[in-house]
Amino acid sequence: MTEQLASVRYVVDDVPAALDFYTTHLGFTVRMSAAPAFADVVRGPLRLLLSGPASSGARATPADAAAAGRNRIHLVVPDLDAEITRLSQEGLTFRGDVVAGPGGRQILLADPADNLVELFESAR
Length: 124
Known about the structure:
By secondary structure, the protein is α/β, with parallel strands linked by helices. It has one domain (about 5-120): 2,3-Dihydroxybiphenyl 1,2-Dioxygenase, domain 1. Helices cover about 20% and strands about 35% of the residues. It has three helices and eight strands, in the order E-H-E-E-E-H-E-H-E-E-E. The protein has helices at about 15-25, 55-60, 80-90, and strands at about 5-10, 30-35, 40-45, 45-50, 70-75, 100, 105-110, 115-120. The longest helix has 11 residues, at about 15-25. The model has no long low-confidence stretch (mean pLDDT about 90).
């Protein structure tokens, strides 16, 4: 049986910077890299396709939809406070404060191209 992954494409302006961000700070591993045009990284069942300006994925994106949007990948973490501390010590900054609701707590950070990443801790 073939490995089942959910794939998301993020259009980025600097593939090496995005590759470093996701592998160094968020635990993704490289499946394939054709930097500076494209990279394919994975974390668990999530396959993230990082498409630079020269990639076919980015070239297929209409100009009016080229900016990073409100969509985001959602990464579950066991201890949100510990992740915030770790990533802050690594020099990353967050977009806003922790938001809590009945399902858990979350905070957003942005990758080097301003694509959003949600770190989420489920309510216990």
